[in-house]
Amino acid sequence: MQNLLSMKLEDNFSIINDKFLECPDIKRQRILLKDACPILIVYVEGLTDIDLLQRDIIPKLLELKSTELFDENMQTVRLPAASLSLSNEIDTLITDILNGKTVIFINGFDIAISLSVIKVEKRSISEPTIEKNVKGAQEAFIESINTNISILRRKVKNDRLKFRTLNLGDVTNQSVAIAYIEGIINPEILETMYQKVKNIDYDALHGVGYIEQLIADNQITPFPHYMSTERPDKVVACLLEGQLAILVDGTPFVLLAPVTFFSFMHAPDDYTGNWMVQSLNRLLRFFGLLIALFLPALYIAVVSYHYYMIPLNLLIPLAESRARVPFPPIIEVLILETTLEMLREATIRLPTFIAASVGVVGGLIIGQAAVDAGIVSNIIIIVVAITAIASFLIPNYDMALTIRYIRFIIMFFASIFGIIGVVICGVFIIAHLVILESLGEPYFKPMFPFNRNDFKDILLRPQLKKLKKRPSLAKPIDKARGKE
Amino acid sequence: MHSKANEISPGQVFIFVVSGQIGFGILSMASTLAEDVGHDGWIAIILAGMITALLICLIVATLKRFDNLTIIEINNIIFGKYLGWFFNVLAIVYLTYASVLMLRHFNDIIRMSALRLTPPLVLTSFIIIPIVYLSWYGLKYVCRYSSIKIILLVLVVLYYMLVIKYFRFTFLQPIGAAGIEKILKVSFSPFTSFIGYELLTFVYPYVRDKKKLLRSALYANAFTVAFYVITVVVLTGFFGEVMLQQLIYPIFSLARAYRAPIFERLDLFFISLWFPIMLSTVMIYYFCAYNTLKRFFNIENDKPKSKILIWCFTIMVILLSRLPKDMIQLRSLFDQLGFVSTGYVGYVFLCYILSFIKKGDKKNEKAT
Question: CB-CB: which of A419, A426, A450 is closest to B147?
C-alpha cells in the first residue's frame, strides 16, 4: 500500500525524499524525542512561521516521550497548536505540506500530525485601485483567499454566509470558494454554478477572468458574462441580492454571478448618497454610454451622407476645417481614435511618472499639431475627446473596453451606410443583448423582458425605503429586505 | 416537444401582435383613407379595429379546438395528408410572400429617405442581418427585441406633440360628413394595416399561459387601434384632407414639416425611429415563415439542417425581394397582400367549421 504511511520512519522519509527531490524550499528536519525516538518534521520554508515552530512547538516536542504524544484513542495530540489534523494517507499529507502546513512523522506510528503554523508573505489590505469611490468602504481584496474570506466574514456577521470550497487547476492546485448567503440564494443557481466550476479542466487559473471565460454560456460575444470586482462592499451587496461570488486564490478579484448588462453601469456610490442626486448621476452615466457608443459614428454618418442635418452656422466652419483635410471622415476619425486608444493602452503599463508625460504629449501636442498640419479637422478633436471622456464614465473596466470595441464596428458601418448603419448596428446590439444569458438569467433583464420592480432601480435610483424588495434577477428565495 | 427558446409569455403575445400589426400599413394609411372618406378616416379605423377584434376571437377559438398545434398540423388533421400538404405549402408561400414584400418595402423606404445611391442588394443584405440573427435564436428573443417597439411608438406619439400647435380642429369637422354608408364600406379596406394577428395561428403552441392569450391579443389590437386613431387624427388635423390625398407617406411629411430651433432637419431622426419599428414587423413575418418551414420539414430540433435551411431561405428572400420592378408595382402587390391575408383568415374560419365535423375523428386518434 503506497498510499498509507508505514510504521518505520525511514520508509516514510524515503517516500518524502523521493517526492520532494530538487525542492530546496521544503525542509526535512530529523530530531529526537525525550525517549530517543526519531521524528521527522517537514515544512515549506517561507510558508511557515519558523519563530513559532522554534519557540513553542519544538521545545514541547523535546520534552515529550513518543508514547505521550497521542492520547489512547489516537485522536488528539499534546501539542500547543491552534489548528492541527491527523492523517495516515501520504497524498493528504503532501497536499498539507504544499499548503504550508508543518507535518510531523513519528517513528513507530503510522499516523502523522499536520500543524497549521502558516505565515505567508502577503501584502496588506489596501485601497481599491481600479474601482475607486467616494463614500463607500476604502478597502479592496488581496491575493490571499483566506484574507478575502475573512474580509467578507467581517462584513457579514451571520452564520448564513457560507463558502463552498473546491480545488482547481490540475497543476497549480488553487483553492476556490463560492460564497453565498443561505436563505437568500436560489439553490438551483448555486448548484448550476457549482457544477460548472467543478467541471473546469485547466492547468492553472491566473485570474477570475479564466473562470469567467471557461464557464461562459455564449462564447461568441464581446460582453462580459459575469462581473469581476475588487470591492468587498460590492460583493456583499450582490450576495444580499441572491447572487453568488467566486473567490480564487492568487487574485485580488472576485467574480459575481448572475449579472445583467445594467449591473455594469451601477456603482456602489449610487446607494450611499442622496437618491435624487444619485439618480441624476445614473442618468448621466447612461447618457455617457450612448455618447461613447454612437457619437463618432453619428459624426461620420452626418458628415459623409446627411450634411444637411448640421445647423448652417456650424456647417460653414466645419466645411472650412474639413476642406483642408485630404481624408474621408472615417479615416479622420480612425486616426484620432486609434491614437487615443494606443495612448490609453500605453499608459496602463507605463510607470506612473512617465504616463503623465505621455498623456500631455498625446493629448495636447498631437491633437493640436494634427489640426495645424491639416490631417484632421477641429470638430473631430472635440468629438473624439467627448467620446473618450464619456467612455470613462462606465464604472466597470471590462464593460468599458467592450463599449470601446463596439464603437469601432459602429463607426465602420456608419461610414458605409450612414445613419442606417448606425440604426441597424444599434438594433443588432440590442438583438445580441437580448439573446445573452448570464447563468440562465436574461442578460438585458429588467428592460427586455420587462420587470417593473427591478426596472425602477435601473435608470434612476429610488429611495432606499422603496427598495425593500430584492431584485428578481437571481430569483432569491427571501424576496424582501428587512425582517418583516 | 419544442425548445424553450420559442416559449413566450402572454405579455409577449401582446408585443407579438402589436409588432405584426404596426409597421407598414400606417405609413400610407392616412392618405388612402383621405381619398375614400375624407376626414372621417378615424371612424373607419375604429370600426375596422372592432372587426379585427372579432376575427382574433375567431382565430383563438379555432386554435383552442386543437391544443398545442399550429396551422400546419391542423391542416394535416383536417384535410388529410395530401390536401393538407398542399395547404401547408400555400401557408408557407403566403408568409414568404409577406416577408419578401415587407423587406422590399423597408428597403425602398430607406432608399427614399436616406440612402439613394446604395446598391439595393447590399442594403437588403445588411438590414436582414438582425432579422436572421434573432429568428435563428427563437421566438422568445424576437419578442424581447420587439418590446423596443412599444417605447419607440410612445416616442413617435411624443413627436406629434411637437407639431400640435399647427393642429386645426376644423379639419376634422363636421364629424361623419362622408356618410355612414361610405364609412362602413371603407372600414373593410384598412384591413391591410391590421394584418399581423393572423400570425397567431403559427405560434399558438409556444404560448405559455394559453388562457390569457386572447386577452393579450385583444389588448394588443386595442393598442394598435389607439395608435392608428391618434396618428390619423393628428395627420388629418395637420394637413387637412385635400393635402393629405397627395402625400405618399404623410407620417414622414409630418416629420419634415417640423422645424427644430437649431438643427436644420430633425426629420431624419424621426424617420430613424421608424426603422427599428419596421424591422420588427419584418422580423415577425420572417420568423413565422422560417419556423413554419422548420415544422413543415420536421427539423425543429436538428441544428445543422436548420442552419442550411436558414441560409437558403435568407438568400431566397433577398433575391425575391428584388422581383417587384418599382414602387408602383410594390404598392399594388401590397394591396393584394391585404386581400390574401383576409382570405387566409377566411380559410381559418373554414377550418373552424370543419373542426366540428372532424371532431369525432380527432377523438378516435387521441384514443389510439
Answer: A450
Q: What whole-number distance in Å separates Cα of residue A266 and Cα of residue B177?
A: 57
Give the span between the Cα atoms of B338 and B48, in whole angstroms.
Answer: 13
Q: Residue B360 — very low, low, confident or very high, per pLDDT cuts 50/70/90?
A: low
Asked if A129 and A115 count as a contact pair (C-beta separation under 8 A), the reply is no
Match 438590414 to its residue by C-alpha cell: B127
Q: Do B133 and A428 touch (CB under 8 A)?
A: yes
Q: CA B281, CA B345: separation in Å to the nearest integer?
A: 19
Q: Say if the Cβ atoms of A431 and B11 lie within 8 Å.
A: no
Coil, helix or strand at residue A132:
coil
pLDDT at position A238, please? 92
Residue B120 burial by Cβ neighbours in a 10 Å radius (0-12, 13-18, 19+): middle
Residues B123 and B104 sit within 8 Å (Cβ to Cβ):
no
pLDDT at A52 over 80: yes
Nearest to B337 by CA among B294, B285, B278: B285
Beta bridge partners of A29: A41
Each residue's pLDDT tens digit, B218-263 = 999 999 999 999 998 998 888 888 888 888 888 888 888 777 777 7
DSSP assignment of A261-325: GGGGG--GGGGTS-HHHHHHHHHHHHHHHHHHHHHHHHHHHHHHT-GGGS-HHHHHHHHHHHHT-
Query: How confident is the model at residue B130, as a pLDDT?
Result: 93
Give the pLDDT score at B366: 46
| Nearest alpha carbon to residue A194 among A246, A242, A232 | A246
pTM for the model: 0.89
Q: Is A177 left (phi over 0), alpha (psi -120 to 50) or beta?
A: beta
Q: What residue type is assigned to position A379 of the chain? A: I
**Whole-angstrom distance, CA of residue A243 vs CA of residue A254:** 12
With CA atoms as reference, the chain B residue closest to A436 would be B141
Q: Over pLDDT 90: what percentage of chain B? A: 23
- A36 in B contact zone (CB under 8 Å): no
Contacts of A413 in chain B (CB under 8 A): 126
Local structure of A32: helix, strand or coil: strand
To the nearest whole angstrom, how far is the Cα of A120 from the nearest Cα of chain B?
A: 50
What is the Cα–Cα distance from B278 to B131, expressed in whole angstroms? 11
Q: Do residues B2 and B205 make contact, with C-beta atoms less than 8 angstroms apart?
A: yes
In whole angstroms, give the CA distance from residue A14 to residue A17: 5
Asked if residue A60 has pLDDT above 60, the reply is yes
Average pLDDT over residues A308-331: 86
Helix ranges (DSSP H) in B189-266: 191-194, 200-203, 213-239, 241-244, 250-257
- Chosen from A298, A434, A459 to mutate, greatest number of chain B CBs within 10 A: A434
Mean pLDDT (chain B, rounded): 84
Tell the burial category of B6 from Cβ atoms under 10 Å away from its Cβ (0-12, 13-18, 19+): buried
Distance CA A441, CA A436 (A): 9
- Does B141 sit within 8 Å of A427, measured CB to CB? no
Q: Which residue of A has its CA nearest to B137?
A: A435
Closest CA to B191 of B37, B16, B353, B334: B334
CA distance A210 to A205: 6
- Asked if residue A446 lies in contact with residue A435, where contact means CB atoms within 8 angstroms, the answer is no
Q: Which residues, 6 or more positions from A157, have their beta carbon under 8 angstroms from its beta carbon?
A: none
